[in-house]
Write a structure and sequence with these properties.
alpha+beta, Penicillin-binding protein 2a (Domain 2), five-stranded antiparallel β-sheet, hydrolase, Beta-lactam_class-D_AS, EC 3.5.2.6
Amino acid sequence: MYLSCRTSGPALAASLVGVLVLTACEPAVEGSPQEVADAVAAALETGEFDAVPMVDGVPADAQARREEAYAALGEVPLDVQVLDVSDTEDVAEARLQLTWDLPGEGEDLAREVPVRMQVVEDEWAATWDPALVGVPDGRVFAVEETGQPRAEILDRDGEELATARPVWHVGIDKTRVEAQEVEESARRLAEAAGTDPEGYAASVAAAGPEAFVRLITYRQSDEEGERLVAATEEIPGAVALDATQVLGPTRTFAQPLLGTVGEVTAELVDSDPERYAIGDVVGLSGLQAAFDDQLRGEPGLVVSAVDPDTGEGSELLDREGVEPEPLQVTLDLDLQELAEDVLADVGPASALVALQPSTGDVLALANGPGSEGISTALAGQYPPGSTFKLASALALLRAGLTPESTVRCEPTLTVDGYEFTNVPGYPESALGDIPLVTAMANSCNTALIGERDRIPMEELARAARDLGVGAVWEMPVTAFSGSVPDEAGSQTEHAASLIGQGSVLASPAAMAVVAASVAEGGPVVPRVVAGQEVPEPEGSLSTEEAEGLRTMMRAVVTDGSASMLADNPGEPVLAKTGTAESGTQDPPQTHVWMVAVQGDLAVAIFVEEGEFGSTTVGPLMDAFLTEAAG
C-alpha cells in the first residue's frame, strides 16, 4: 500500500509553540481510468483478459463470450481504440471504438461501446459487461455475403461460352457407408471411373468421418458421366451430387484460353489474404484468372447482431458489392467448334488459329487432344519451316527482286559443310533457273538459301517484324509472338533461318499473324478480348510488297504444294505450306505447317509431328476453309 502524506499550515504554527501536530496520511489509488481503458481495449483485441483489473475479478466467461460473439467474423482483424475518458474522484467512463477490417473494398464494421470504471479497494477497475464485445448480451455477430453469380464469358456475338452448367460431383460420402467398408467402396468407385483405386482409397481413408470426398466431376450431358452415376447405386457410400460449375460449351472448347474456375488454392490465399479466403470460388487460369475481378465482382456484406437460438436480430452494416460483369471475347462460337472438330482426330500436339485480318480479332484458337491441355496455339515455340519463307521473300522484294525474278533451284546446296536439300518428292520441273514465284509455289529451299547474300540476318529479322513476328501483343494470357535474331552464329544458321529453321521460332498464332499481315497489307496485332486496345504495330508493308507476297501465296495454291485448296468455295485462297525438322532422331521429327488467307480470314494450322505440310495439314486446312465458307 502506497501512502500520501500532507502537512497543513496550522501544523507549522503549532510547532512553534511546542504543540505536536501529527501529519495527515491517506492511501493512494493505484492505476488510472486511462490505463484501465487501455487494458480493456487490448483484451478485446487479443481475447486475453487476465491482466485487466475488474470489479469482482475477471469473469470466467469473458474470453468465451468474446469467442462466441466473434465466431462468424473468423480471422477478421480487430482494432480497438480508446476515444476518450471522463472521470470524477472515484468513478469514470471511457468510450471505445471497435473496428473490424472486413475483407474486400468498402466500409468496415465499427461499433462504439462504453466502459464503466470505479475505484475498488484503492484501485481503478472496470465493470464487466457482456456488451463490451460490441453486441448486446445474448447476441452474436452474423455475416452474410450478398451478390450475383459469376458473370459469363461471351463470344463476339454475345453467345454464352463459359457459364454455369449442370454437373455431377461423384464421390464417397463417408456418412453413408460403414467405416470398415469405406476403402473398398472407394476402390470400386475409382475402378468404375477408370482412375487410380489405391490413391483414391487412401484419400478417402484420410478424410474426416463425415467427409464427402469427390473423385471426379462430369457434365450432366456426358454419357460417360451418366454411366458412372448409375454405378454409384451399386456401391455403398457412393453418391452423385447435383451441382453447377462454370464451364465452356465442351470439355476442350478453347480451354487453355478461357481457363478454369474453382476453389481458391492455399497459395493464392497466402499471397493475398485481403482478397481471398478459403472456400472462395475464383478464376484459376486463362481469361478466368486474368479477368477474375470483373467476372467475380465484389460481394456485398450484411453484418447483423442475432440471437443464435431464434435467428432474430438487427442489421449493423449493409455494404454494397460490385456487380460482376461479363467478358466478351473475339472468338466465334461456330468457328471455334469447327476448329476443334477439325483437330479432333489428330494424335500429336496440334493447333489451329483463325484471325480476322481487318481487326486482328482471334476468331478461333483451338488445340488438338495431343496438346493435353497445353496452349500450343498461343504459347508454343516451334521453328515455322517454310511458312517463314514469306519473310524471306519479303526481304528479297526489298532487295529489288519481283515475283518474276529468276532464282536458281538446285537439288542440293552445301553451306559451310552442311548440305541442304529440298522436300522429298520436289518436282524436277521446278529445278534450275525458275521465277521466284515458282520457287515459293513449290517451296524450294535451295533457291532461298542461294540468295542469302541478298538477305543479311538483320534484314530478315526486319522483314519478319514487318509481318508481325516478335511484336508486342499485350495478351492477357501467355502468348509467344515469335523471335528472329538479328545475327546468326554461323553461315549454316543464317541459311537455315531463311527456311524457317535455325534460331527462328514462332507460335501457330504468330504464323496466323504473318498470313493476316500479308492479307491486310501491314502488320496485324491480334487480340482475344473484344474492344481491347492493342499496341500500335511497328513497321509497315508497301502496297507493292503486300501484293507481291499475295501473288506468291496464290501461286502455292494454283501451281504448288497447296493445290488441294484450289477449288475451295468462296474467295480465292492464298497459302503457304511448311515443314521443319526438329530433334536428334534419325530421321528427325518433322513439324508440319500451313498458313492460308481467304477474304478477311487468315488461318494457321500446326501439327507437331507429321509428314508434309501438304499431306498432313492440307486436308485439315481444306476441311476448315470449306466449312467456314459455308
